[in-house]
Amino acid sequence: xxxxxxxxxxxxxxxxxxxxxxxxxxxxxxxxxxxxxxxxxxxxxxxxxxxxxxxxxxxxxxxxxxxxxxxxxxxxxxxxxxxxxxxxxxxxxxxxxxxxxxxxxxxxxxxxxxxxxxxxxxxxxxxxxxxxxxxxxxxxxxxxxxxxxxxxxxxxxxxxxxxxxxxxxxxxxxxxx
Length: 177
Known about the structure:
This protein has helices at residues 3-37, 44-48, 63-73, 102-105, and strands spanning 75-82, 88-95, 111-115, 120-123, 126-127, 131-132, 144-150, 161-166, 169-175. The protein is an alpha+beta fold.
């Protein structure tokens, strides 16, 4: 085995370890939030209300979250979609400010989709003749861009919450539709 291949394998292993630590930290934070949200209810009316899990609620992004992603990363209308076969998960977004959104289309950053619930890391598949299944061009304002993540084994399903990581960009708690 050549030294170059060996160093690439070490780098890949270190990225996998870092991502697994990130998943563990996210899962423990989610567990703490869920435990705090399901603490003993006050009053008789609250005691009779049925318990619903946090992940099953259909919630859209708040106005504050939308403004944060536009100000910090120049993107809005982020959406995570489950494909018909379930083998791919599509992440799409609209560019509001091209200068800030460059990182999402930069080829030097590898995108990951993290599923804290399943402790899974999904990657963008690479085709032999096509390359990575993502759009990596200079972003233009008002244009919608996408990338797909391999969901082998159908670990991520509609209703699950996922995190998208591309370099320094983090979109947390996106619901798979």
